[in-house]
């Protein structure tokens, strides 16, 4: 039997099907249609569904699911394997919590720093004992580009360039890329260095849509040997949560 895992983010909805720990299917879309849900239910023997959402909404496809399969909504109380010391657990982003659970599930008994690159960049550490105290949130890659364009009259909206490696820009577009991409690079290395000073044996887990891009930014850094890429970490964390609930 399979688990259907759905993560509704600020920009995209990520969908996955798991058979125990094995990831059988994954896709993402901006808008979920009932046809997508029907296709997945017809293709896989889905036993349970877990939905995590940063939005307060209930769409037609969610009603459809609830009619056919038991649906569980991921919440701050589903923290088996994690000792959550966050002072306001009700305000903790569910994607951050799921990522921490995923890190603990994939690397039990180890210290891990999760860096999730999506709409925002989040930094969250879980220690070898499963303790989670909190983390940091900063603007994501595309948010920085859009902000420079939105809040100024003269700066154009440009996109990231995976091949840009210059320290400074010789024209306006390159200067923007230098500021945004090098700014993120120095932010990443600064956070990693700070955490590694506390825990030398630290896994650095890159997840989210910009995980590959962040890996490129860090490929020549001293931290490269410690980096693990888990683009589906949140989905794996949600799957772990629903399996723990089954148990």
Describe the model:
It is a single chain. This protein is 37% helix and 27% strand. The chain has 247 residues and is α/β, with parallel strands linked by helices. The protein has two domains: 2-73, Nucleotidyltransferase, domain 5 (2-Layer Sandwich); 83-236, Nucleotidyltransferase, domain 5 (2-Layer Sandwich), CATH 3.30.420.40. A six-stranded mixed beta sheet has the order 6-9-8-7-10-11, sandwiched between helices. A five-stranded mixed beta sheet has the order 3-2-1-4-5, with helices on one face. Helix 3 packs across helix 7 and helix 4 (141-150) packs across helix 5. The model has no long low-confidence stretch (mean pLDDT 92).
Give the structural class: alpha/beta
| Major β-sheet profile | 6 strands, mixed
| Number of structural units classed as domains | 2
Distance between the termini: 14 Å
Q: Which CATH architecture of the largest domain is right? A: 2-Layer Sandwich
Question: What is the helix/strand order?
Answer: EEEHEHEEHEEEHHEHEH
Instruction: Give the integer mean of the pLDDT values.
Output: 92
The share of residues in helices is 25-40%
Say what the CATH topology of the largest domain is: Nucleotidyltransferase, domain 5
Return residue spans where pLDDT drops below 50 for at least 5 consecutive residues: none
Q: Which CATH class of the largest domain?
A: Alpha Beta
Which homologous superfamily in CATH is the superfamily of the largest domain?
ATPase, nucleotide binding domain
Helix tally equals 7
With strands numbered from the N-terminus, the spatial order across the biggest sheet is 6-9-8-7-10-11
Instruction: Give a count of the beta strands, DSSP E runs of length 2 or more.
Output: 11
Strand content: 25-35%
Radius of gyration: 19 Å
What does the overall shape look like? globular
